[in-house]
Design a protein that fits this description.
Elements lengths: L3 E7 L2 E7 L5 H8 L18 E4 L2 E4 L12 E3 L12 H8 L9 H14 L5 H7 L11 H21 L1
Parallel strand pairs: 1-5
Antiparallel strand pairs: 1-2, 3-4, 3-5
Helix pairs in contact: 2-5
Bound molecules: FE2/S2 (inorganic) cluster (2 copies).
The site of one FE2/S2 (inorganic) cluster has 12 residues, from loops.
């Protein structure tokens, strides 16, 4: 089968992939690049398990055609956290016991990251809205909301010490 080249920025680094012309971003990440942190749940944009950040916005990778990310900026769960250190959102999710099976967790973290990158002063209501497209069948949403709220506080502290 003929493949096409897609060039884009992935987790801060240039990336070139040969993929099938009809691949979804989700297929290109999981099958071509072996980045399996992004999960496939419903495959039709309803569960949020496949959430990644595209040009700063949270998107469901199962609904994004792979060729459409040409020249754009993609961040996946593998790009969150730096040099063996978890991101404050990941730390807070662990601290608040905001996961059980963990299947939905990368999607929640990416939705939260897109929100807090844009608005580190997000309220609990804004957090609930940002994660409203992510479904969790076993932990529920309260611990996740608390964890993301705590992570926002931590990120604000970290950014203050950098100034
Ligand atoms: S797998 Fe993409 S939204 Fe469910
Ligand atoms: S922790 Fe299992 S689906 Fe959310």
């Amino acid at each position: 089968m003929e493949r096409i080249k897609v060039s884009f920025t992935l987790n801060g680094k240039p990336c070139e992939v040969m993929t099938k012309p009809y691949s979804r971003l989700l297929d290109m990440l999981r099958d071509d690049l072996r980045l399996t942190g992004t999960k496939e749940g419903c495959g039709v944009g309803e569960c949020g398990a496949c959430t990644v950040i595209l040009d700063g916005k949270a998107v469901t990778a199962c609904l994004v055609p792979a060729p459409s990310v040409e020249g754009r900026n993609v961040v996946t769960i593998e790009g969150v956290g730096k040099e063996g250190k978890l991101d404050p959102i990941q730390e807070a999710v662990l601290k608040e016991h905001a996961l059980q099976c963990g299947f939905c967790t990368p999607g929640f973290i990416m939705s939260a990251k897109a929100l807090l990158d844009e608005n580190p002063f997000a309220t609990k209501e804004e957090i609930r809205r940002a994660i409203s497209g992510n479904l969790c069948r076993c932990t529920g949403y309260e611990q996740l909301t608390t964890a993301i709220y705590e992570a926002a506080e931590e990120l604000r502290k970290l950014n203050k010490t950098k100034i």
